[in-house]
Design a protein that fits this description.
Blueprint lengths: L1 H17 L18 H15 L10 E7 L3 E8 L4 E8 L5 E4 L6 H4 L13 E11 L2 E14 L5 E11 L11 E4 L13 H7 L7 E6 L5 E10 L7 E9 L7 E3 L2 E4 L2 E5 L2 E4 L6 E4 H11 L6 E3 L9 E5 L2 E5 L1 H4 E4 L2 E4 L1 E4 L4 E3 L1 H4 L2 E6 L4 E7 L10 H11 L6
Bound molecules: 2-acetamido-2-deoxy-beta-D-glucopyranose (NAG) (6 copies).
The site of one 2-acetamido-2-deoxy-beta-D-glucopyranose (NAG) has 5 residues, from loops.
Length: 403
Amino acid sequence: MAHFQFLVGILILLSALADGSLHRIPLHRSPNFKRTREAIVAEQLYVDHKYNLNTTANGFPMEQLSNFNNLQYYGNISIGTPGQVFSVQFDTGSANLWVPSAQCSSPACVQHKLYYSNMSSTFQSNGSVFDITYVEGTVAGFMSQDLVSVAGLRGVLQTFGEVTTETGANFLNSSFDGILGMAFPPLAVNLVTPFFQNLYHHKLVQQPVFSFLLRNNGTTASYGGELILGGSDPALYRGQLTYVTVSNPEYWQFVTDSIQMGNTVISRGSAAIADTGTSLLLAPLAQYTQIAGIFKVNSQGYFRCRKISSWPTLNFRISGVSFKVPPQNYILQEGAYCTLAIVSSNQEFWILGDVFLGLYYTIFDVGNQRLGFANVNNTGSTLGQMGVFTMLLSFILLKLWVH
Ligand SMILES: *[C@@H]1O[C@H](CO)[C@@H](O)[C@H](O)[C@H]1NC(C)=O
Ligand SMILES: *[C@@H]1O[C@H](CO)[C@@H](O)[C@H](O)[C@H]1NC(C)=O
Ligand SMILES: *[C@@H]1O[C@H](CO)[C@@H](O)[C@H](O)[C@H]1NC(C)=O
Ligand SMILES: *[C@@H]1O[C@H](CO)[C@@H](O)[C@H](O)[C@H]1NC(C)=O
Ligand SMILES: *[C@@H]1O[C@H](CO)[C@@H](O)[C@H](O)[C@H]1NC(C)=O
Ligand SMILES: *[C@@H]1O[C@H](CO)[C@@H](O)[C@H](O)[C@H]1NC(C)=O
């Protein structure tokens, strides 16, 4: 059938050529036109405007992110025709896309944007069921397919989860409606092709690479950072990029040379993952216990404050290069008491969330299975005076550990 249509198309084209009825549109060329950098940029801006594409100065599609308290970063995607806009967390620690379904009456759903398949002309049913369990709750529902678009790019037909039950406090107050997973395909529930891989297969991005700038200068709806699809932007970082091979391409997992708190070696050869969907730093229990000992953290998670800058720097050595997290970035102060933005996890690997990724521009190179880190161009404010309320909220909102 498809072949037949193709053939008919060719025949129509040939007959059009034969009778000369193809329209020829004369092209005008200005005589002194120079293809200067400015001209290219101007043309690009014009084209971007025309197609409503957001791009970086060096030409890659760019999704602007909102930042809530340096703890949650999210941006808009559109699903269906006409587009229904959802705000999603772009999460490198999971691999599925899901949004609340119009069929969901859980409190966490009704506080958020719902997807109405019956209002989309491009919806296709799938119906296989899925559930994803987080420590604090579960999202469950069924799969559907529809056009999904990001950063103004053309939509691709994507299989995603329509969530019909959302239990637990996790998502009740989240500033985003759903999650768009950007980990590797083996991690995807029901082995659905993840969205970024789908974009790349449809040639909507030039290279199988994406990168994140997570600004850490506090809550802003408009420029909390950016997700660049198909490349990276050297204007956003300074100095060299340091690459590290992904050791287990499910999570964005790699092996650190060492992790030190000041002069104390916490581990050598620990695995770690880069996870934009987690706010804090999570350490394997034994290593967390060692760190908590240095600060004399009590059973409630607090320790007695002193001048924050007098505490040691946390230092991740990766591919021979030091990636420092100063105490201002991992300690939160509330009056006389302080608490760590480092918590324990029951995983074997460290989870480097926004506390780390806010300091380092990160390139997720899907094609070469490697991560690139560099210093961000300007680090904003620190965690400092965020307050215990925010901290508690961040614990609630911490995306915890699945699979
Ligand atoms: C997302 O869309 C909403 C309206 O639908 C808009 O208010 C908000 O600014 C958008 N966010 C970003 C980061 O563009
Ligand atoms: C679409 O479905 C919702 C419930 O899921 C219903 O309330 C609404 O009336 C339906 N809209 C149309 C146009 O069928
Ligand atoms: C539903 O989606 C899954 C995952 O992409 C696929 O394996 C399955 O064949 C689909 N089922 C239907 C009925 O389309
Ligand atoms: C492009 O970015 C602007 C903010 O700079 C935003 O308002 C607009 O919605 C974005 N467009 C798309 C298609 O994402
Ligand atoms: C979460 O949302 C509910 C309902 O809007 C509200 O009552 C509650 O105070 C919120 N909790 C937090 C921690 O913001
Ligand atoms: C963060 O920096 C951006 C760009 O410099 C600025 O527009 C925004 O207001 C800043 N936000 C805060 C909370 O300081």
